Amino acid sequence: MAVAPLYKTQELKIYNSISGQKEVFTPITEGNIGMYVCGPTVYSNVHLGNCRTFISFDLIYRYLKHLGYKVRYVRNITDAGHLENDGDQGEDKVSKKARLEQLEPMEIVQRYTLDFHNILGKFNNIPPSIEPTATGHIVEQIEIIKTIIDNGFAYVANGSVYFDVKKFNETNHYGKLSGRNIEDMIANTRELTAQSDKKNPQDFALWKKAEPEHIMRWPSPWSDGFPGWHLECTVMSTKYLGEQFDIHGGGMDLKFPHHECEIAQGEAACGVTPVNYWMHANMLTLDGKKMSKSTGNILSPAEIFSGDSDKLNKAFAPTVARFFMLQAHYRSILDFSNDALEASEKGFFRLMESIETLDNLKTNVSTEGFDVQIWVKECYEAMNDDFNSPILIAKLFEAVKFINSVKEEKATLSKADHKLFQQTMNQFVFDVLGLVNINEASSDISDKLSGTVELLIDLRAEARANKNFATSDKIRDELLAMGIQLKDGREGTSFTLN
Ligand code: AMP
Ligand code: ZN
Asked: How far apart are CA 83 and CA 350, in angstroms?
């Protein structure tokens, strides 16, 4: 007889941002889940903050799969339409970078998409089921705009198409996700600038007519132009998950306007509200401030892996950084610091060591000093409570303590419990949390390795100062051949591991 999937016996609760409450999770189709997460805008290297959001959703994806659901996980790549300042004015982020670097926009897209995949792979994130791009769905975007115009919720002005927020709000509720009141918003905004084509400043672009210098452009019934940033997510989620689907996620900073606009577009186009559970992951901060590309307050994953930053005392393995992030709940703000990461690293190695100890633990006739069944139940309860990974990790450390007492013969473990214990520990640590077992010795080697590279950087600088270019070039080229790339900058030479 086939074993019933776990979701039949586990009651999962998800905090739904739209109701502000934890709700029992029930998918539209039993056993199946459609999940959409807003992906990156590929105009620069991902920073650690971005990674936190994608790791949060990787945890969620992993647990849903662990419960036995068949999950279709769609995460887009934003390769057009996302303008500077996240609004309707200014240059496209991708074309701006292309202009500055004198490259084709698609070269920028390719470079940073590869970086994104490479870094998330290092963090052991599972790739989504579908990863659609905005530029691959221009035709669908044009079609949905036509529908929204036909339904009376958008207007054409000077070759651009805008969503009519005020009109929409007469029959629907704009602001239901972010708790904003449109009447107040209209009353509190300054007059529209004379050159704006919008009826109200809250209206947002579905299609923008391209200025002559705008290189990323496509023909449409209204103008040669490009689609609005909010629209791509509506189009791609509808195409691959249907007009109504289970879970939509993204970083907290996307709640307004991006997700609010997605709800409005979905309702305006399809007449139904698109998403049942809205999930928002909280921010990673550095020195108490949000990590953000635009302010430059960032740490890159490469800096973490190499230890090459004045914010760090040493290098950290990707799985240790992942563990550090999972020690906070996905809805809490997490502040990054070297000390916090060092503390996580200690805990991480303790956990890994005890998993190895568990494998070789001597069993006994009965279990004394710990109730394995209750412990298993509590691990599930932690994750069923809105994916509470810090509580789960606390439970795992209770297990570590027990494993050590069995080892020291202060407690005993029965053969049957040993099997369940081992299985549950492995499932939660590796399948659900997605950690990778590396041992302290290999991590210690990578610390020493970065010290060695620093030494070679100093020797190369010395060689250059002495005009011994043969030696300095040899150091650079041979390191590169080993996958260690030196980068000369204003503040000296740094390195990345390719
Ligand atoms: P972007 O490429 O800017 O569109 O961002 C990609 C994702 O990273 C979005 O879901 C953002 O909400 C998220 N994000 C940006 N900054 C941070 C941060 N400091 N901490 C966590 N997530 C972030
Ligand atoms: Zn989106």
From this structure: 46
* Whole-angstrom distance, CA of residue 356 vs CA of residue 343: 21
Separation CA 460–CA 275 (nearest Å): 56
Choose the residue to mutate in 53, 56, 93, 291 for probing ligand 1, maximizing ligand atoms within 8 Å of C-beta. Answer: 53
Q: How far is the CA of 51 from the centre of ligand 1 (A)?
A: 8
- The minimum-distance atom of ligand 1 relative to the CA of 38 is 10
Mutational test site, ligand 1, from 35, 50, 258, 329, max ligand atoms within 8 Å of CB: 50
333: three-class secondary structure by DSSP:
coil
Q: From first to last of the 498 residues of the chain, give the pLDDT tens digit.
A: 678 999 999 999 999 999 999 999 999 999 999 999 999 999 999 999 999 999 999 999 999 999 999 999 999 999 998 988 788 888 889 989 999 999 999 999 999 999 999 999 999 999 999 999 999 999 999 999 999 999 999 999 999 999 999 999 999 999 999 999 888 887 777 655 555 899 999 999 999 999 998 889 999 999 999 999 999 999 999 999 999 999 999 999 999 999 999 999 999 999 999 999 999 999 999 999 999 988 999 999 999 999 999 999 999 999 999 999 999 999 999 999 999 999 999 999 999 999 999 999 999 999 999 999 999 999 999 999 999 999 999 999 999 999 999 999 999 999 999 999 999 999 999 999 999 999 766 666 566 777 788 889 989 999 999 999 999 999 999 999 888 888 888 778 888 777
- Give the global pTM: 0.90
> How many Å lie between the centroid of ligand 2 and the Cα of residue 40?
9
DSSP string, 431-478: IIS------HHHHHHHHHHHHHHHHHHHHHHHHHHTT-HHHHHHHHHH
Classify strands 70-75 and 32-37 as parallel, antiparallel or unpaired: parallel
Q: Which residues line ligand 1 (CB under 6 A)?
A: 38, 40-41, 49-50, 52-53, 250-251, 253-254, 283-284, 290-292
Nearest CA to ligand 1 atom 6: 40
Element containing residue 334 per DSSP (H, E): strand 334-336
Tell me the CA–centroid distance for residue 490 and ligand 2, in Å: 36
Q: Give me 437's structure tokens.
A: 């077992």
Distance 290 CA to ligand 1 centre (A): 10
Q: Is 266 exposed, middle or buried (0-12, 13-18, 19+ CB in 10 A)?
A: buried
How far does the centroid of ligand 2 lie from the alpha carbon of residue 37, in Å? Answer: 7
Determine whether 253 is exposed, middle or buried from the number of CB atoms within 10 Å of its CB (0-12, 13-18, 19+). middle
Radius of gyration of the chain (CA): 26
Compute the distance from residue 117 Cα to the ligand 2 centre, in Å: 18
Q: Whose CA is nearest to atom 8 of ligand 1?
A: 50
Question: Residue 484 pairs with which residues in a beta bridge?
Answer: 497
First to last CA, the chain: 49
Residue in 116, 135, 118, 129 with CA at minimum distance from that of residue 53 = 116
